[in-house]
Amino acid sequence: MRRYGKNPDEDDIRVRPNRKGNRPRTNIRPKHEDASEGLVLTVDRGRITCLIEDRTVIAMKARELGRKSAVVGDRVAVVGDLTGAKDTLARIVRVEPRTSTLRRTADDDDPFERVVVANADQLAIVTALADPEPRPRLIDRCLVAAYDAGLDPLLVLTKSDLASAGPLLESYGTLGVPYVVTNRDELTDGTAADRVRERLHGHMTAFVGHSGVGKTTLVNALVPDRKRATGHVNAVTGRGRHTTTSALALPLPDDSGWVIDTPGVRSFGLHHVDPARVVLAFPDLVPGTADCPRACSHDEPDCALDQWVADGHADPARLYSLRRLLATRERREGD
To answer: Is the link from the previous residue into 111 a cis peptide, with omega within 30 of 0?
Structure first.
């Protein structure tokens, strides 16, 4: 048997390859400076549809993103095949910092947050005045989520031909939330869509609401060339049927803004909400919180807002509205 010394210099020496690879691994990742910017339009089973310039591109999340996910409304950096041709697949290598994040949890005891949409600046809360009956607690919860995320709320009331909007609007008058009231005839002739579209001009607006309230019907009226399936309300349960299964961002005509149609919700958990952020939506009450105890919930005996209102600095109805919204975190929507 042939033997070699410790430092053999023969040319026929066979060197075993490194089982872990001959090239050392590095933490340096490519910067993808040539990546194109895209807007996430929808996400479906790991496939992400992005708008890049004037074409849609199907992409998947790159491995370097790790657990970070892309949601509708995200601005992303995309590389690979960007032609948008059939059976092509690009890669999302970076999710740009978000200007806003609308979140919800399954319920108030669930710590797992679900991002609904990113980078929206307005939240349209769509509620039917009848068929199904309005759910004020769900409206309150959506308002809290909007204030927490820094979104401007918009109340859109549908089916006013079946019931009056007066009682519901009266309960939200002190909040100063803008609103639009529509009915079925106005949706047919386009006048309702015109009024709502005025409120959406220049905004990226997320539409949320209970199933069956006419949310997708309204979106179809706003963007006529992109019809989405609509459902009906069950006559026995009074509940709508889910027809929108994934969020979808759609451009308004003449590029005047964006609407994001989201699936109907039956609950809107607020486990993630910080009361200190909700009170920021009440600028007339914010100065009164300066003397509040540390970590004040703004709904306890030592809260300084009581004295602030008693001294005439703000309307008592405004403090009541704030506490009503904060209390929704402790109540179920159906209560």
So the answer is: no
